[in-house]
Amino acid sequence: MNGLRAVVVCLVIACAAVVSPAAAVTPAKGVTPSWSALPVPAAAPPVTVTDLAARGPREAWATGYEQAADGLRPMLYRWDGTAWSRDTSFPGAGEPGWLGKVQFVGTDVWIFHNLAGEGEILRRSAGGWNAVPLPQTLWTYQDFTAVPGAAWVVGEDDTGLKVLHHDGSGWTTQATPEGVLYLMGITARTATDAWAWADTSTGTTVLRWDGTAWRDANVPLPPNSNVHTLLLEPSGRITIGGSQYTDGVGRTYLMTFDGHAWRTTYPPLGDTSTEAMVRGPDGALWLPVRSDRAFQSKYARVDGPRTTFSYGPERTNAIDVTPRALARAGAALLSFGTVEIYGSKPNLMSERLGG
Prior knowledge:
This protein is mainly β.
């Protein structure tokens, strides 16, 4: 009987291998993919990562700056679906300055560029790079965003707050509501639907541009709070992340607008900055958090009331692994940041989940 049973078992296994050869390599249902390390060509440390944006699994751009002998030097990296490479073909690549936010606008790539104190927008199309200078110089460039038909640069000069708007043909200066002291960030869904978070005489406020004027969006932010980021999604959903302070102690909050009402939650993230938060391909919110392991990065996944954590790959002799920006790249998540190996200054690192 035992011999017959063994024969039957062997036949079943053999048939399964013939009928479904992929079964042996298909992950079991519910198995979570792990983070993997992606090599990045080194820059001149110490380096600072500013932003990361992806358009599908085969194109992503990461911006920042490195420390050259004559000061800061702009730093631009491109992901082609297989590897990261450094791009030095843009105007001003070898001159002092830094690169800020990167955006996809139609088929083009737009990047904010501070060239030795002068602001401009770098635009990459099928024909290559070109630069669009700003109409005036600001002494602080706080943020930038662009969509088809419009772009905004916000900052300050010696007269105060400035909101510079490009309509596709030229620049104008836009006014903000009375009491707005400073714009901390800006983002847009369309040319007539832009949002900004501001410091005002009464606290933090969210503003909205409707194509005609900037107005208070009347978002019921938690008392004594600030805003780190604001995610606008094509579906109409809006997610705000920030910190609320009670007796000097901060805790992270998330606010979600479903088209009808705002809902506020407090995931167990301590006082983590949500500046790098993105909506992942799984529909959950992802953001980097401070790791309790010096040799590994750490990420939080917030899916409704449930918050879970995952670690990046182990890095030999690392004393600090810090993801600075995340982006959805097709079915994967890309991370770009810095890693400090014992005995050396922080340099670049990238990690990928899924894909």
